Amino acid sequence: MWGGWGGGGVGWWCVFFFNDTATTEIYTLSLHDALPIYTLIAGPGAEGRALRLAEAGVAVVCMHTNFDAATGGTADSLAAALGLSDVIPFGRFDDAHDVDGSEGLIGRVGTVSPQSLGALARTVGRVLRSEARIAGRSAGPVNRVAVLPGSGSDFIGAAASTSCDVLVTGDVSHHRAREAIEMGICVIDPGHAPTERPGVAALYSFVESIVGEAIDMTAIDDSPWETD
Fold first, then answer.
1. DSSP secondary structure code for residue 113 in this structure
2. What is the pLDDT of residues 48-59, one digit of tens each?
3. How close are the terminal C-alpha atoms of the chain, in Å?
């Protein structure tokens, strides 16, 4: 996610980071759930934000499932943040291309030290700065953990096929949670944006290392959900 402009081979680069959406006040580049634009229209919404960015001369590079799947991307970053070891990919997404040998698989599954489901949920909440919901009950310690950043409930079946004890992902509905339980796995749902935070931080660090100037806006949280 970086943009630049200039002429004659000379220009400047400025990196902005803001997960998911730009505000009306700050021109940004978008990572996940990137600006869903088909036209440029003055006014509110994604089309208006894109138009204002274009008028300001700011280039926008948007990444979504391709960065989820990429080696070192959002899925790998989430697995690393939660301390998973022996990590392997799972969950093919039709629009996710093979990047750096990831084979277009946007989930990761690995192991943690055996612990209670509640203890793992508390770790997830602490690391991702969120209040995690739990679906299901584990008869014993959990050890094998699948993770999928963003909205991963479409991959519950794929996660279950990895023989995981629990899936960590966001946006899990009532019926999908019941589906997971019936398949024999538990779910920890810390929310959509929180599961993407490690990936956003990793991408910022990468871009900062290769451009002259970076403005870190990753602390601005776009999650629409509030706590007391």
1. E
2. 887 888 888 777
3. 33
Q: Which CATH number fits domain 66-190: 3.40.50.2000, 2.40.50.100, 3.40.1390.30, 3.40.630.30?
A: 3.40.1390.30
Q: What is the rounded distance in angstroms from the CA atom of residue 18 to the CA atom of residue 48?
A: 17
In one-letter notation, the amino acid at residue 68 is D
Residue 49's Cβ-side half-sphere holds a number of Cα atoms within 13 Å equal to: 18
For residues 189 and 177, give the distance between their C-alpha atoms in angstroms, rounded to a whole number. 10
**Closest by CA position to 192, among listed 72, 74, 90, 95:** 74
- Residue 84 token pair: 């998973």
Q: What is the pTM of this model?
A: 0.80
Extract the tokens encoding 28. 């940004």
The answer to whether 49 and 24 are in contact (CB under 8 A) is yes
* Spatial distance between the Cα atoms of 110 and 117, rounded to a whole number of angstroms: 15
